[in-house]
Amino acid sequence: MSTEPGPPRLTIVGAGPAGLAAALAAAGRGVRVTVVDAARAAGGQFYRQPSAGLGARRPQALHHQWRTWQRLSDGLAREVAAGRVTHLPDHHVWCVERRLDGSGRFTVHALVGPEQEKPVEVRADAVLLATGGYEKVLPFPGWTLPGVVTAGGAQAMLKGTLAVSGRTAVVAGTGPLLLPVATGLASAGVTVAALVESAHPAALVRRTGALTRRADKLTEGAWYAAELLRRRVRTLVRHTVVEAHGDDRVEAVTVAALDAEGRVRGGTGLRIPCDTLAVGHGLLPHTDLAEALGCRIESTGPRVWVDEEQRTDVPGVWAAGETTGIGGAALSLAEGHIAGRSAAARLGGRVPDPGEWAKAAKAREELREFFGAIDAVYVPPAHWTEQVTDDTVVCRCEEVTAGAVREAVGELGAADVRTVKLLTRAGMGWCQGRICEPAVAGIAGCGQAVARRPFALPVPLGVLSRAGESGEDDGDDAPP
Amino acid sequence: MNPLELARAEPGPAFTVTLDGRELEALPGQTVAATLWAAGVTSWRTTRGAGRPRGIFCGIGVCHDCLVTVNERPNQRACLVPVRPGDAIRTQEGTGHEH
Ligand SMILES: Cc1cc2nc3c(=O)[nH]c(=O)nc-3n(C[C@H](O)[C@H](O)[C@H](O)COP(=O)(O)OP(=O)(O)OC[C@H]3O[C@@H](n4cnc5c(N)ncnc54)[C@H](O)[C@@H]3O)c2cc1C
Ligand code: FES
């Protein structure tokens, strides 16, 4: 595929479990790999590391599966030293562009540095998107108060900067991520006043088939449960947060029990004082780079569609990890490994033999099945919108209330998210609807549309007008 | 136990930054948001419309709730920007361009 001399070049966006597994699989097989990531260090969300300046001598205290991380980070260091992999941290990719010169090659556009000022371009013969996901939070009265953070955000601040926002936290919402967040905060000295889960894990029992094939994952869940018990964290299942209270910051939350239909049961409200509410309702895949490349996006998720080799439907573009569907670090590793091997074979002009990655394919199948069962159980309460009062802000950026969304649907006749957006400005602010989209769709009572965001980040106009003129950055990579 | 003790952190020497002129201590390797959290500050901007306080929400650069003015540059995401000695951090009102 390459038109230039030297080995073919694979550019991987994302240095989480998926991107790193892919880099290691491809680098040993005759491919020159560049890993581009916005973070200052490799690891992604699961293996987010404390900043080097903090001098953490025991970062594993905040981690699970530390040995896997050591294998990945040692492997990365080895491949970088051997000149087969270039790691470009602090590079925020805003667009991946297919070159128009008929070469089938790509240009990855990034902004460098935490302030994202300097534009940089990376050329590639093939691209692998391993951009992971971000957290979904559904609104409730008081959710914009400072001290209310996403569960993953609390975890990211803890792992990456060793910081917590207060002394007493409530961890709430739904999904398996709440467990490591609650145990992580508790081990860091925060009093976890309650873990509030709206689903009933007993529902998992009905899906034992998919679960027992991954006994390791079940043991992991049991370990967290035991840890919460040991730390005397009160766990409330089939409960939901109804309201966060406070004036300039959260001071307490009210939680309440849910009935079998997923409605709040009257008279069950319980007020819990706290200065932090870590809340999450599952994760959403990052699909924006794939959207701009024209890759097929499946509306469940929404997530990037891939085939058995982790190829998207756009030639030369692979995807792996949570960008293709939420399923945790182990699934991301398996997908990354397969994607890296497939890309290496295809870039070398060979048709890969799936027998080469049979073990990873088996893990992928089991874990997808496992998370399918998990996903079916850990869903937000069916009637969550009934708790969202008209004056509750839904779109945090543009301060659009639930009342305005309801008015757009009821009085102005909007029948889809796009029209609601045009009428209310919900989703038109800084975050481009990433945070409010599921909420707007739920409150409007219409399905979530697959978004088409032109760029993955807000891009300064000056950068856009100069795109194509900037220098090529291949890190320490000398031209072949 | 606090997070620094848990991870047995041995950061380099602390340095000073300011928040609206008030001196705060910061550690190398921290972000602006982590420095403010460590100082007990959870909100550092007010919204354009209703003037409501905001701080960290997503913690990973997605939501833009944590915008702040650092060294006269408004709209910096506090959860991503590393703190540097002498930084002048200002709480941000609205778009940050009103001053
Ligand atoms: C905030 C958060 C915290 C989490 N914490 C935990 C936890 O503690 N335990 C747990 O079991 N699971 C956790 N998860 C779930 C986690 O997503 C998966 O377990 C796992 O990390 C997924 O691996 P991945 O390789 O697909 O993506 P990730 O690990 O998310 O890696 C994606 C990488 O891509 C980079 N990236 C994304 N977009 C761009 C771009 N446009 N330009 C450049 N780089 C980009 C990111 O910086 C990141 O490093 C968390 C998820 C989130 C969102
Ligand atoms: S907290 Fe969401 S962008 Fe900083």
From TrEMBL, chain A:
InterPro entries: BFD-like_2Fe2S-bd_dom, BFD-like_2Fe2S-bd_dom_sf, FAD/NAD-bd_sf, FAD/NAD-binding_dom, Metab_Enz_Cyan_OpOx_G3PDH, Opine_Oxase_asu/HCN_bsu. Gene3D superfamilies: BFD-like [2Fe-2S]-binding domain, FAD/NAD(P)-binding domain, NAD(P)-binding Rossmann-like Domain. It comes from the Bacteria. The keyword Signal does not apply. Residues 9-324 form the FAD/NAD(P)-binding domain. CDD domains: GlpA-like_Fer2_BFD-like. Keywords: Oxidoreductase. Residues 393-443 form the BFD-like [2Fe-2S]-binding domain. This is NAD(P)/FAD-dependent oxidoreductase. It comes from Streptomyces akebiae.
UniProtKB/TrEMBL annotation, chain B:
The keyword Oxidoreductase applies. Keywords: Oxidoreductase. This is (2Fe-2S)-binding protein.
